[in-house]
Amino acid sequence: MGGKGDRKATKATSSARAAEALAAKGGAAGFGGFVGGRLVAGFGFGAAAAAAVNSATGAAPAGSGEALELSAELDGDLAQCLRHLSKRDTVTKMKALQSLKDLVPTKCHADLALFLQPWGYQFKRLLLDPAKSVRVEAVTIMAAVGAAVGKALLPHLKGLLGPWYLACFDPYPGAAAAAAQSLAEVFPGKKQADVLVFCRREVLSHITTCLASTPQSLGDARRDAPHEMEERHARITAASLTAAAALLTTLVQQQQPQQLTQEPDAVDQQAATDKGTPEAAAAAAAVQEVVEKLQELLNIPGFFKKHLGSKAIEVRRAAYGLVNCMSVAAPELLASCEAAAAPLVLGALQEKEPVNHPAMWRMLLSYINSQQPGCWAAVNMQKAFLPRLLALLRHGCYGSAAVSLPALLPLLALFPRQLLSLQPVLLLDQILESLWLGLPHCAGNQAARNATAAAYQECFNWGAKQAPVLATATGSAT
Q1: How sure is the predictor about 280, in pLDDT bands with cuts at 50, 70 and 90?
Q2: How confident is the model at residue 316 (pLDDT cuts 50, 70, 90)?
Q3: What average pLDDT does the segment 323-352 reach?
Q4: Which one, of 150, 154, 149, 184, lies nearest residue 167 by Cα?
Q5: Cβ atoms within 10 Å of 219's Cβ, excluding its own
Q6: Listed residue (164, 89, 170, 169) closest to 132, CA to CA
Q7: What's the confidence (pLDDT) of residue 78?
């Protein structure tokens, strides 16, 4: 980590001097909260992000003359690693992270306490890095630092937990698993839920900020390739949607922790006992705040179209998960925006990526269960819903028949009565015919063929059992 790179760093480049001059005039904070070679208060990319964080944290804005610099009291080895982490190339950052991994266990508590603040800025920045290995190493070191400093982490926790929690839902499984493990090491067991309750506003703020971001606001168009900025934005958006769903689920479970393990009578007794406890009251307040913030998000024009209709596979999958979570945990959220949500949720049957189909079906069934019959009135069944369903079946579910077709009968059972009363025989015939036409697409996949045959038999049997009801409905409709 020495050599020519260090000697070059001793003299500021013309671009660095220009950035510092711009900051001195109140200009942009620069890439990742850095101006020239100096670390400035806040975290973000560009002036808007820096200003938002400065406002939230009370830090001095870039260019105010109060930019943070590495303390002279900071351990030299740790300071050198921090400087190298601001480099652009992955190799240099990985060497610096590996050095930190070796250094942290050898440093005293006082050195690490001084290290926390500048490391926090770098940590948030590293989580946006396109290199998966960098993100994995960053959360691994965060766990080591958090465990080493203990309670000294608390003053920095509200600023760190949002990005740290989001990292647990990185679309790359390795990075997500490493982040979740690091958070669990620092906050084991129930402590993690308690920390989420304590920092809920900051976590929610970080999620909403990320969802409002653009590829340009998360990167630097002068230095990043367009595909790199798009990939980063899709990754952060998907993680934010999944984190919002996970946060709501965790807090609801925290509010009623005994319901999953006790008998109904015991649950009622326990709920009555726990209702007045400080923990339950804090959890209830946290749930209310999350619900209110999610309501604000859902009411943003185009929210559902932007995410459920995203070009990015991982963003659509995360959006399906969020709608599914809200359908189960807070259905009133979706009821208030039915006109905007229903056409896009029920229209998700046009999804052609088989990896997204499990999440799509979970969302669809839970949404209809929680929002019927109103949701059916908000969508054109004959022109939007049914054609997409039949196309999915005709194409063998685009390769996901084994996991998709078991959901067909539950969906059929949720069809609105008015739809079934119009032409029930024709509707059932179209479904059976589409299943038959989809069978050739399952060639070579025995599980898919078995699922198709089972779905055909289930739908046929359902039609036979429902024949008297459907005949009555048809007669009353005419």
Answers
A1: confident
A2: very high
A3: 95
A4: 184
A5: 25
A6: 170
A7: 93
Q: pTM for the complete prediction?
A: 0.81
| Average pLDDT score over the chain | 82
Per the structure block, which two tokens stand in for 109?
């508590």
Q: Which of residues 41 and 322 earns the better pLDDT score?
A: 322
Asked whether the predicted pLDDT for residue 380 surpasses 90, the reply is no
Q: Given the structure tokens 């992270």, which residue do they identify?
A: 97
Considering only the C-alpha atoms of the chain, give the largest distance between any 2 of them, rounded to a whole number of Å.
Answer: 89
- Are 363 and 320 in contact by the 8 Å Cβ rule? The answer is yes
Q: Would you tell me the crossing angle of helices 76-85 and 90-103 to the nearest 10 degrees?
A: 150
